[in-house]
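Narrative summary of target 7.
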Amino acid sequence: MAKEESSVAADLIDFLNASPTAFHAVDEAKKRLKAAGYEQIFERGDWNLQAGKKYFFTRNYSTVVAFAIGKKYVAGNGFHIVGAHTDSPCLKLKPVSKVSKGGYLEVGVQTYGGGLWHTWFDRDLTIAGRLIIKEGKSDGASYSHRLVRLQEPIMRIPTLAIHLDRGVNDGFKVNTQTHLAPVLATSVKAELNKVVADNGPDGKPIESPNSQKHHSLLLQLLAAQVGCKPDDICDFELQACDTQPSVIAGAMKEFIFSGRLDNLCMSFCSLKALIDATVSEKSLEDESGVRMVALFDHEEVGSNSAQGAGSPVMFDALSRITTFFSSDSQLLEKAIQRSFLVSADMAHALHPNYMDKHEENHQPKLHSGLVIKHNANQRYATNAVTAFIFREIAAKHNLPVQDFVVRNDMPCGSTIGPILASGTGIRTVDIGAPQLSMHSIREMCAVDDVKHSYEHLKAFYEEFTCLDAKIAVDI
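Modeled conformation, tokenized:
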């Protein structure tokens, strides 16, 4: 493994291990953007923008949009965008998570997205997400959003012994309501802990308002982690997480084993590409467009939320940037037609044990570069022009590229690409790095493809303006 490949992959590992949830992924992106000289702006406030400068904002702290304005930018010029998503299939805690059965304390969870739920059994699980914390008392109270992550494994979803289910190897179907509740503790041990922890100085039990909805033990663990009292926790958005860290692995150290590669791998590569393509003021000297990355929440459940790709969050940014530099309302429409979107979402690599699941002439392989996704029914937004542009950039840099079409007798997934293309009218190509075990709690991809993806997206930012000027379509 070459040193440069190892460096990019090692940086991805750091990003993955810092990002157990979409909130943490945005927090990590925010830290990296600030370190690279990007200025944080806010949707609720006024924007004071300047050509040659770099900015970012967050929405719901689970979506982030960052952009660098070329020094030669004028209103009406295009936006060069890479879009990805921050969320992954997982188990999210229910609004009332307190479950007690058979002498056990369990945590009620709901499935988020289309996960391979059988892979969540017998894993060492913890909890991460965000809390809404009350600070101060009565009329002077304020409320803050705090990220939380319990580092230690505190839960497990145990499988049923084969002796009690002899037919399990003939086919196991997960009942997501009854089978997936993680075990937090036994009732006996939890009660002993409650006597010690909940009794105040007068010996009387302290009752948290939330203790009717969530186990007191869980609330104590969360409060201790963020440094507050259990009854200061007003609400939360939490999910179960695997405690096993992401690693570079394989006999030849050629793979990445990790959760959430779909789609934090593409989020990382697009973010790093933008940062490194705008690392200095000189990098924007000849740029006449705006380089942008948009990392959305809720792709795994359809993108229909205030912070998903189905919301106007990206279009609002394009509009505000354009109108800041000119009040001419027609310039935004011109900018849209001069823009280009790369929808970056992980792709299905050929599986050696299930080769019949791929179309014979479209079998993406690990180590072989980004995959351009095609679908005649517009499940992907790629067309001949957008595929050519992306392929031409690869050829110039001697980067490998592949094509994917799903079999005619199988349904095709989709991405944020068609949502954004139809919602804004921006030319779009759907691409992604190849991976195995998509939507498992533990996925895998190739180190080489992380480097290929990063280099391809960085080249897109640096060269699209020049290449697009040579292409004529609507003439």
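The CA atoms of residues 362 and 404 lie 5 Å apart.
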